[in-house]
Amino acid sequence: MKRRIEHADFGAMTYAQDEWMSAAPVPTGAGPAFVSLEGDDRGPCTPAVDIAHATIPRASDIVSLATLFATTHAGAREFLEDHGPLTLDGFAFRANGEFSVGFGVADWPDAMVDVKFRDGVPYDVWLGD
């Protein structure tokens, strides 16, 4: 059985593999998105929660930046070609202050695109199918 908590800001969250994931999308300025926070079996770690609190109010700007980065990244551009626009899935926040913005792809249900951020700046794209 998965551990479950009720987080004051992110609602019901379940724990698996050092990560707490919101059970339902959380409202953000960029639209509803799942939130995942690094932590242990006792709960999300404070640094991950802190970066989430600093980032989610700026979600619209962050998602725009992530979208621009992904769609201009050479490998991602080829990966995304002819599959429709990116669709926001969620945010993942790490204890080291880094975070990622996760996207799906409109016309490719299995595709995943994660834009990695360090110090509020995108630096890498992870592509998965």
Topology:
Elements: E1 4-7, E2 11-16, E3 19-22, E4 34-40, E5 43-44, H1 46-55, H2 59-72, H3 74-80, E6 86-93, E7 99-105, E8 108-118, E9 121-128
Parallel strand pairs: 4-6
Antiparallel strand pairs: 1-2, 2-3, 3-4, 4-5, 6-7, 7-8, 8-9
Could you provide a short overview of the structure?
The chain has 129 residues and is an alpha+beta fold.
Account of the protein in words:
With 129 residues, the chain is α+β, with helices and mostly antiparallel strands. The chain has one domain. It is built from three helices and nine strands. The model has no long low-confidence stretch (mean pLDDT 94).
Structural class: alpha+beta
CA radius of gyration: 14 Å
- Overall number of structural domains: 1
For the largest beta-sheet, the strand count, sense and barrel status come to: 9 strands, mixed
Give the fraction of residues assigned to helices: 10-25%
Overall pLDDT, averaged? 94
Number of strands: 9
What string, H for helix and E for strand, traces the elements in order?
EEEEEHHHEEEE
Q: Which descriptor suits the 3D outline?
A: globular
- N- to C-terminal distance: 28 Å
Low-confidence spans = none
Contiguous helical run count: 3
**Content of β-strand:** 35-45%
What descriptors fit this protein?
single chain, 129 residues, alpha+beta, nine-stranded mixed beta sheet, 3 helices, 24% helix, globular
